[in-house]
Amino acid sequence: QVRMVESGGGLVQAGGSLRLSCAASGSIFSINAMGWYRQAPGKQRELVATVTSGGNTNYADSVKGRFTISRDNAKNTVYLQMNSLKPGDTAVYYCNVNEWGGSSWWGQGTQVTVSS
User: Predicted confidence band at 48 (pLDDT cuts at 50, 70, 90)?
Assistant: First the structure.
């Protein structure tokens, strides 16, 4: 019914950049917030950044000044521009879509690996 397709992950050296994309499609009435979360091995999934339908953004302290979240409402797509990457950013990154009414959907995850 609802499909979330992520792309853009990969291997990058410390200090490099990656741009993640996540496109949502299907039976979505109206999207409220979209966001990115990440999960490293042995650790709990944590919030990275969110953006509301009105463009308000929120970032984890660990990524402020380095990551930028944005969205294209016409395409139901959310992006995460990641600059100045650190080895600590290594994780599986998941996009998330929250609909008005309470439904929530997750992407399949994309691996980001940052080497020293």
Answer: very high
